[in-house]
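The material for today's practical consists of a large collection of protein records. Getting from the letters to the tokens is the skill we practise here. To make this concrete, we reproduce a full record directly below:
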Amino acid sequence: MGGFGLRMKQFFITLAAVVVALLIVFVALPIGAVVMIASAAKPKVPEAVVLSLDLRQKMTDQSRNTPFAFLMGKSLSTMDVVTTLHHAADDSRVKGVFIRLPEGGMSPSAAEEIRNAIVYVRRANKPVIAHSQGLYPDTMVVASYMLGASSGNLWMQPHSSFQVTGIATSTMFLKRAFDKYGVKAEYEQRYEFKNAVNPYLYSDYTPAHREATLGWMNSIYHSMINNVAADRRTDAGKLQATLEAGPYGAEQALKLGLVDQLGQVQDAEDAAIKRAGNGAKVMDIADYESTLTPSFSGETIAVIDGEGAIMTGRAGSGGGFNSDPGMISDEIAGAFYKAAKDKNVKAIVFRVSSPGGSDTASEQIAEAMQAAKAAGKPVVVSMGEYAASGGYWVSSGASSIVANPSTLTGSIGVFGGKFAIGDALARFGVDNRDISVGGDYSQAFSQTQGFSPTQRAALSGWIDEIYNGFVTHVATGRKLPEATVRDIAKGRVWTGEQALSLKLVDKLGGFYDAVDVAKGLAKIDSKTEVRLVDYDTEPGLFGGAKQNVHMGISGLKALSFLGWAMSDPKAEAVMSQVRDERLREQGASVLAPEAYQASVR
């Protein structure tokens, strides 16, 4: 038996060696060859180039190092566009920029960020031409128009539609459907403005829900109008009246001075080439970006990216290649500690675009930020699309906060609870039975039934503790009286413009404004060039993508059950869409571990 065991051991060692060799031959070597070929095929920038920027694609706020991006190409992010345009403005080879606008809306904060970059390009005396094949009704189509107006030369396709008349949104309320099919949504909210779960609890907007929603919509709308009026050198009131009297056809929009010229896409591109000068070539902005090399001169400012829902764990511990971006606390905190120890780093810019997440993960990141500050590294937060709830938790302790006027921020509030679907299942002959050991609270998050009075009281106390801690954290970080924070908290979302007057942020502006603030805090001369070093928080090639966040097991089952009970094959897809919208709406503050089957936001 001993000889047989030895031979088997040798067999498995040999087998493992063969497998490793095969992996090297058939996986590693081909990938290496592809990388070498890709590097050899790196595009070259012509002596005269017009950069082409297509904004019709969906963009994240920050760059994502997804696996095999070198094979399939990297999708552009808002930050990619902004930083690349800044490089282009200072590059003598770049003679102009040609932009294609989306037909619908886009993130107003992203539009503001890119608008700032376009203005920077134009100040370098480089022409920018934008082309639209039509602007159609969408929640934020006014943001697309604002971006086009910033070019100073906005074209439209003949006979297309110009439908920029305001901002509209809708909320699908499920309370009556839940009542009909026996689904109970049981949640505690802190406080009346924390309305992310209102669609499960009510059949219409509450007064607070309506007030908060109209508040941020009006703020964004008037910010967009004022930007367009400034770029087109017209009166904001007159512009607003003209837009709201629409919709118009492209020809009428031209007569009203809302656009500058009519023509097909090729006509506009040809015009951009002509203005750039003879011999100019068109180059996609992604190809141009791939030719840029990092600077190795100047003082170092670390850049830490944080986008998506905030959660504990490590990057790559869950999710697939197509997962949404997430702020993984171990990775973000690790980047802060790494930057804090780097003697070359003079300051840190923390880019935050998050609707919220775990309170424990948020606190881990916040503590790492404080460690960096204690090490003498000023930290400036640059807010992207939103920095709400947990996103504001991780931001509030920064040395300074810079937000775009339309950034959704604040939402200093919490909710927590569950969906109870036991009665709903029973109506269809499905009996769910619980069994447990320990205290009464061990069954609190069972999907079978609602909270008992003692369970509800315990949950309420837990929510109060988190909320009070949130308020104290903000008051300390922002150096505000706690009473002031309590008055402006209550779960309400503010825009960056509103947050400035409430002292929740320090300055309005984009990423490069945050860099300028960081330079000032680090006592770096404003005219001195700095080296921006990205402290990557994502996993490597085979590390997997970032994790997804879900409402919780019972919530998914409740929504899926409702879709099935309604006997509509499209219903479950609608419920899934509603779930995703709730995750985005109003920004969530904290998310309990899924083991509790609850969302505390």
User: Anything to note?
Assistant: The two ends are 61 Å apart (CA to CA). The domain at 299-593 is CATH 3.90.226.10 (2-enoyl-CoA Hydratase; Chain A, domain 1).
